Amino acid sequence: MVKIERSFPAPKSLAEEAQKTNGRYDREDVIEQLKNDFHNKCYICEMKELQDPNVEHLLPHKNGKYPERKFDWENLFWSCGHCNGIKNNGKYDGGVMDCCKYDPEQYLSFQIKGSDVDIVVSNPDDAIQKRTAMLVTETFSLKNTGMRTYTSDERLKLLQTEMNLLYKQLEKMRNSQDSKVTMRTLRSLLRRESAFAAFKRCYIREHAAEYPELQQYVALDT
């Protein structure tokens, strides 16, 4: 999960649909604006080029129980069906971190250790941080159904592949530090728009002594 810059004004259809008895929050203008703002990447697991995109509510509207949330542009997020399904659980009703207002990388450490994802919170007493860490972890590890086992495993494999791409480029940089092509590739891999960016960026920050020249590309929002 990385910081996202939400665009304004809100899609026009939201105000129009809010006046209807059975209004929709997923009209074409909403889809297009969310897709662009979130770089067609799930805000939770960070998988790109989604084949099953969902318009997800950060705070649930509970089928009309909270109508003010249903059409609130700042409450709509771009997610994959897998993550939306996992988040649709009562334990997440209190909300997770709003990555359009806060930089998750300032509060969470995104690590992969072998075949396990480990999200470390900066403040163990912060409920939002803990729920966010739990949610991101579950998107890569929850296996309570056959299909969820498959989709969780697929995300973990894609994450491992992306991390291996990073490791390969870092090895190239160590062997040939003057390679402009390698540096361009690393800059691309470390952009927030890239797949699983939080994990790659965190790795570079945690190895700052080894990669001082890359720290400028993983700087946190201030």
Describe it for me?
With 222 residues, the chain is mostly helical. Helices cover 42% and strands 10% of the residues. It has eight helices and four strands; from the N terminus they run ααβαβαββαααα. It has helices spanning 12-18, 28-37, 67-70, 81-87, 127-141, 146-175, 180-189, 197-206, and strands spanning 53-57, 76-80, 108-113, 116-121. The strands form two sheets. It has a two-stranded antiparallel ribbon. Strands 3-4 form a two-stranded antiparallel ribbon. A hairpin with a 2-residue loop joins strand 3 (108-113) and strand 4 (116-121). Helix 5 crosses helix 6 and helix 6 runs antiparallel to helix 7. The radius of gyration is 18 Å and the shape is globular. The mean pLDDT is 95.
Topology:
Elements: H1 12-18, H2 28-37, E1 53-57, H3 67-70, E2 76-80, H4 81-87, E3 108-113, E4 116-121, H5 127-141, H6 146-175, H7 180-189, H8 197-206
Antiparallel strand pairs: 1-2, 3-4
Keyphrases for this structure?
222 residues; mainly alpha
Order of helices and strands: HHEHEHEEHHHH
Task: Please give the number of β-strands.
Answer: 4
| Strand adjacency order, main sheet | 1-2
Percent range for β-strand residues = 5-15%
Radius of gyration: 18 Å
3D shape: globular
Q: Which structural category do the helix and sheet elements fall into?
A: mainly alpha
Looking at the chains present, what oligomeric state does this protein adopt? single chain
What distance lies between the first and last C-alpha atoms, to the nearest angstrom?
A: 17 Å
Look at the structure and give the mean pLDDT: 95
Give the proportion of residues in helices. Answer: 40-55%
Instruction: Summarize the main sheet.
Output: 2 strands, antiparallel
